[in-house]
Amino acid sequence: MLSAGNVQSCLRKLEALLRVIKYPSDVDYSGLSKGDPSSFLPIVSFTLTTFSPPFAEQLVAAGLELSGKTDLRFTDTLYKVLRDIFHYKPILTKEQFLQWGFSQRKISFICDIINLVLQRHKQLHKPKVRYPTKHNIRKKSHLTLTDADTASKNPFVEDHRRNPFYFAYPAKRDTFSADNEGSAYRSEISPSGASEIPAPDEEESKESFLNASVMKK
Question: Name one Pfam family in it (predicted).
Answer without folding.
Answer: CEP44
